[in-house]
Description:
The complex is a heterodimer of chains A (236) and B (119). Chain A has 236 residues and is an alpha+beta fold. Helix content of chain A is 42%, strand content 24%. In chain A, β11 and β12 (219-222) form a beta hairpin. In chain A, α3 (115-124) crosses α4 (126-152), α5 packs across α7 and α5 packs across α8. Chain A is globular, with a radius of gyration of 19 Å. Chain A starts with 24 loop residues before the first helix and ends with a helix. By secondary structure, chain B is α+β, with helices and mostly antiparallel strands. Chain B has a single domain, classed as Jelly Rolls (Sandwich), CATH 2.60.120. Chain B is built from four helices and eight strands. In chain B, the strands form two sheets. In chain B, strands 1-8-3-6 form a four-stranded antiparallel β-sheet. Chain B has a four-stranded antiparallel β-sheet with strand order 2-7-4-5, with no helix packed on it. In chain B, a hairpin with a 2-residue loop joins β4 (57-61) and β5 (64-69). Chain B is globular and about 45 Å long.
Amino acid sequence: MSKAAKLECENCPSQHKGIFCELESLALKNVSENKVVNKYKKGQTLFVQGNPPFGMYCVSTGNIKISQVGEDGKESIVRIASAGDVLGHRSIFTEQYYNATATAVEDCTVCFLDKKYILKLVKESPAVATNIISKLGKDLGAAEKRLTSFYQKNVRERLAEFLLLLKESHGVKEAEGIRLDIKLTREEMASIIATAPETLIRFMSELKQEGFIEQKGKTIYITDEPGLLEFANILY
Amino acid sequence: MIYHLSMVLKTRIENLNPKEIKKLLLNVGSRIYQTRSELIYKGHIPLAGFILIKGAIDLMQGKKLVGSIAPGQLLGLNEALHHIPFKYQAIIESNSEVIILDQSTLKELSQEIAEIVAK
């Protein structure tokens, strides 16, 4: 049986985006030696709500949805993790079981470092500790912003805001506009902005009619960013 | 030398008696999987080796059940030690309890065995 080819940190497509990337060459090599790399197919789970954490995941390529299932069995998508993001980091420090499920929305390459190694790295490397704290801070800020949106914005505004967020994380400038380099189903998008898929479809059509976005198949292009910003009622 | 030590470790862990499993439980601790889920996907390198304490783990080849792990048995240790892709899909049943032997723990155990062997 052949061993899977291992992705070294120095050759990672997400280099300079992750929390370990600033480490010196020797330390980075040590991280490479201690990690486990796997390719997850669309639909496969990295971890499941209610199960025990024993390490942290670092996304090299691909997009992963983080979702929670309520008592009624309904899935709500909390956020999308993409290349350079880390997952499971909160559970390492809180000792709590996973409160969400991480599922690949497309084929992904993900690295895993166990908890013992992460804690050792945090003690030895202030840069890693700082980056994790910074990441936790950004996560908290994003969660607070999202909560505020739910209270203060209507569905149209939340949809526009969501598309602008995707533009920040997944936007690729092209001739037609800014292509959102992520494929989400209507149900997934509706879940993220807390609305029904039918409502999402209606408001997507509105945004197209207004000229803010264009759709080619499943690919969304933002064609009028200032217009979308105003529509989203965002004070930048 | 490293391969020899890992084979010694593998053999040693495979032959743990109940008293030694209890000691490992005290030192490493165990975890309960509350939700039925995939522990290892086919073709993946296991993130850790697992010793099943309570419950069940099914081994699947597609939709076909090819085997089960019973309490006291190991899962994925050889593959985790040598970074070898796992042949099957391992699904852990809800409320199953396992000892998780992650890479760091395996390295520590290997180091202990290396010291014993060196004496």
